[in-house]
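re: that chain from earlier
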Amino acid sequence: MTVLAAVSTTFARVDYDIGMKALEDGNHTIAVNMLESARINGDMRAAMVLARLYEEGEDVNRDPTKACDRYIKAGEAGNVDAQYAIVNCYDSGHAISTGTDQLKWLEGDAGNGHVATYCEAELFYAYGNVVEQDRRKALELCLQDALAGDVPAMDRGAGWFWRGDGTKCNIEQAVRLGASARSTATASRPPRIWGCTTSSGATTSRLIPARPTPC
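^ sequence. v structure.
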């Protein structure tokens, strides 16, 4: 670390501490100014605090777009919680994505244990959206979602095997996954969903096509 970088890091820590103390004392203007200074100087803890403040409208005017910008900066620095929030930003439209960026965060977030994002990543590979179409990769993501207990994913997985799509046709496995979906559902079995529910709670409109007959 260079001397300049070390000085910048020190200033960032000091600004962060001052900002948090001001926030605790109710001095919101000072808090935001100091936290922004800390963020600019590289303290991504400040970016996360600011993101939450802007997202919730706590002590500042609510600004989802600004919140997403801070989440992205924190996510780029490796903050796991920020990566999950970034997925929500793309789903809600408060962050603009080229598609490739969105897939990067989806896969990173899924790898961090947030299984809700497996399905969205699955659709990218299923349709070849911004990446080369890879039905086998889509199936792998679907099955990881299913293993985490997601009932619609079990149904979608059954469809993949039923159609012989992304894998060899396997009616037995399709039936097994369908049975798991029925036994896992807490109430009556939900409608068969060939798309998925996004991390923000909305159901995708693009559905993975299913054939009426098996392979």
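Confidence is low (pLDDT under 50) at residues 187-212.
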